[in-house]
Specification:
There is one protein chain. The protein has helices spanning 2-15, 18-37, 44-60, 65-87, 92-110, 116-119, 131-135, 158-185, 191-195, 197-218, 231-253, 255-265, 267-272, 277-300, 312-325, 332-354, 362-383; strands at residues 145-146, 222-223. With 399 residues, it is mostly helical. It has a single domain, classed as ABC transporter involved in vitamin B12 uptake, BtuC, CATH 1.10.3470. It has a two-stranded antiparallel sheet. Helix 2 (18-37) packs across helix 12 (255-265). The longest helix is centred in the middle third of the chain and has 28 residues, at 158-185. The mean pLDDT is 86.
């Protein structure tokens, strides 16, 4: 039992890591591209890499944190305009070809030895050269504290207490997901509760707070403010996720957001209404690219900026997370990304613990975890193509 709980602890840590939060923000941008507008952007990792380079290089050259973030966002705007200007008037597959090629070009340019004084070449920019500007924002002193110190250990409940807390956590998360789906579609076992929006929102808030409390009751850890597992870094990273979700929600509910869906479903109908489809697509590409760039900044805030770490594989991870959570769903990127990373670590840990090394070594368990997640995604696309939180009515993509 202790082995399983340790594996679950590792899965939760990966699911709420700052790198996961950074990819969530990038997936939110991809959701604006693909989910709401129908743009086939296969180079979101390129936007992430530009944002990370823009911030890290600016800080190492003496700019402040705020200006460095602005530089990273501006670079993403220019990149989006360069990509979109020649392709957005054509079919969607042209954008897919251009974006994946451009992202690879950026990756190879970042590896150039001639640019090593700025980009670090193939070795990248080490985190210690730009992280201090971020760490100085901390108000937690040395950061050595335990978040929610009242936990199953301090109460002396032992393994049984952690098991009960874990089961409660799973039940609360399932209830939260079911209620969110019922509020979105009006269907399901909680449809009656979801019909009263005010009560449903209060219940969702309570369940969300309870999820947060139970998570740290079941998996209590003390960390410093810096590094991949620093609570200060985690808190700020997920705060930015919340801000990104709020901005996306406001955009989608606006007339501009409805125009995005109109472009996705029928471009000709939008043109007949006098809408400039090209401009709407360009705006979506730029805004989604800015989310991608900012996600790249958050992604590297607890590690180094290395070009090969943000290749096309990261874009495929982003699409996996988006399809898993549900395209065109506000919370789809969050659920899909956390499930993707958490499930992968869970599968890898179980395989390493219970499959003998003579059958499957450490390297094979890593590959096996990707295989299982990939097969699961294939089954999901076949039997529930809208994803976990998605809606079938949101699948009429004009790409």
């Amino acid at each position: 039992m202790d082995t399983i709980l340790n594996i679950l602890s590792n899965s939760v840590e990966e699911a709420i890591a700052p790198t996961t939060a950074g990819l969530v923000i990038a997936v939110i941008g991809l959701n604006i591209h693909f989910g709401f507008t129908g743009l086939m952007n296969i180079g979101q990792a390129g936007f992430m890499l530009l944002g990370a380079y823009g911030m890290a290089i600016s800080i190492t050259q003496g700019l402040g944190m705020f200006l460095a973030v602005v530089v990273g966002l501006l670079v993403a705007v220019v990149f989006a305009f360069i990509l979109g200007a020649p392709t957005l008037k054509l079919r969607g597959d042209y954008l897919a070809i251009v974006t994946i090629s451009a992202a690879e070009i950026i990756r190879y340019v970042g590896r150039l030895a001639a640019l090593e004084p700025w980009t670090g070449g193939s070795q990248g920019i080490f985190g210690k050269s730009y992280q201090p500007a971020f760490v100085k924002l901390s108000f937690f002193g040395d950061g050595s504290f335990t978040l929610l110190p009242v936990n199953y250990k301090s109460l002396g409940l032992g393994t049984a207490g952690q098991t009960i807390g874990l089961l409660l956590l799973i039940a609360v998360i399932v209830a939260l997901v079911m209620l969110a789906k019922a509020m979105r579609t009006g269907e399901g076992t909680l449809a009656g509760l979801a019909a009263n929006r005010t009560v449903a929102r209060v219940v969702m808030t309570v369940l969300g707070v309870l999820t947060f409390v139970l998570m740290f009751f079941v998996f209590p850890v003390s960390y410093g403010r810096t590094g991949t597992n620093g609570w200060w870094v985690r808190a700020v990273a997920w705060f930015f996720v919340g801000v990104s979700l709020l901005i996306t929600w406001l955009l989608v509910r606006s007339p501009w957001g409805r125009a995005l869906k109109g472009v996705r479903e029928d471009e000709e109908a939008m043109r007949s209404l006098g809408k400039n489809v090209y401009v709407i697509k360009m705006q979506a590409l730029i805004i989604g690219g800015m989310f991608g760039a900012f996600g790249g900044m958050v992604y590297v805030i607890s590690q180094s900026v290395q070009a090969d770490a943000m290749g096309r594989q990261l874009t495929f991870f982003a699409y996996t997370a988006l399809l898993l959570g549900g395209a065109a769903a506000i919370f789809g990127p969050v659920l899909g990304t956390t499930l993707f990373f958490g499930a992968r670590i869970l599968i890898r840990g179980l395989a390493a613990a219970y499959i003998p090394n003579s059958i499957m070594g450490d390297q094979q368990t890593e590959q096996f975890s990707y295989i299982v997640v990939g097969v699961g995604l294939m089954l999901l696309v076949i039997f529930r193509p809208q994803g976990i939180l998605g809606n079938k009515r949101e699948l009429r993509f004009n790409v």
